[in-house]
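REQUEST
  id: r-88c1
  op: predict_structure
  target: Phosphotransferase
  payload:
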Amino acid sequence: MTSLSSALSKQQAMLNKIADAFAISDACLQKIVSGLYAELTNGLQKNYKRLGGELHMSPSFIHCHTSPNGTALGMTIEASGKRIRISSASFDSVCSLSSSATQVFVTPKARKQSTSSFFDYIAFCIREFLQVNNLESKLCSDSSSGSSRKPQRHLPLGISIGLPVSSKNKVAEDAKEDCLDLCGSDIARRLCDTILRSHLPVRVTSVTNNTVSALIAAKYADKNTCVAASFNHGINAAYMEDIDNVESLSSPSSQSTDSPFEVAINTEIGRFGAKNTRILPLTMWDRRLDRESKHPGTRVLEKLIADQYMGEIVRNLITDFMDNQLLFSHNIEVEAISTEYAFHTAYMAPIMEDASSEFKTVEDIFAAEFGISGISLADRKVIRSLCEIVAGRASKLAGAIIAALVIKATASSSTAKRSNQMSVALSGVLFDTNVQLYENTVSSLEQCLTKHSDASVDVYLQNRCADLFGAAVNAASL
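RESPONSE
  id: r-88c1
  status: 200
  body:
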């Protein structure tokens, strides 16, 4: 009994130490908001990247100031190239969505081995989509009808891609996420060439990052939306900015209008932290994960929050308990739980949501996924607590990120200045699967804003196809 009591005491002591390491004070939270805001502001300067700025801060000319018209295509390309999604969106005379269709294509491995072959496959997907949804005949019927609307001879196509894109439709040179060898490529030009060779009735009209596309979709649903943030495998955010504030784009003509033209800024906010390590509350487990990652010293903020990494942080904490002989029995099979990234972030939500006294969900997951059964109640409580600690810190950081963006948009965006209410669109698998994390993020956002701004903010969740629909809306709004 004394031995058991001693083990439980040591378990609790280590758990308390971890909780203290992951705790974020109010002062630290405000410091993060201020640091992010400063970086967002500096990122608009012409020499920002030359001076070693961390964020991408690329402006995108989007068409939210006009209304969508006719039928358009939207297409999303994953950074990995594994999937291509194509959607059509038809808008009626009052700019309401009247019909839509979506198709998902899985890229054959051979097609990803060369960029030319990959673009040829995209053309194949477009042709397949047009035929399945009978869109070519629709163009012909529109042209021959007596409608007063100008007939469409080509379907406008908006491309959304999971990589940072410049205002000139080029993938950023430093896109470490690029698995398709597209760095520096002009996506629109390359796809246009392929489409022309394939004789497709499609015209590429825009190329945007997927978070910018989600912002377009959000503004279609709610004109007051000025910020969109995505928390998926990686994290990113975009917001609306007056063009006069973007040094590389400002011009005398833009200043002469009554209402300055706005652009969407793709921040690549997950890059923050590599040069601001004193601002972010890094623990020894964060440093270990960063050191062992594919790209050490990059995207530091992302590694504290993203779906790709949160489960791995929990797994590292679990194995540290095991190394200290404070978790599980000595004769368990350790190979599975010792494998990097074996503990998926998706496991955290059901463990955290288990309100039973026995925390049976922990037992079920570890037996099915890691071959570890017969876990004591004390061990189950520890694992559940570790999930709550890591998720709790992530929600505070996510709230700080959104707060910094809201404050920036409130100070800069004409839309935000004119409206008494600003809307924020959130999306991503983190929030789709973990209600508690989402609610705590919103609470953290509200807490941060009370210290910095009196902006009234309405937060809502977007569906997973927001980027696809946003690309179509952007194309249809020309």
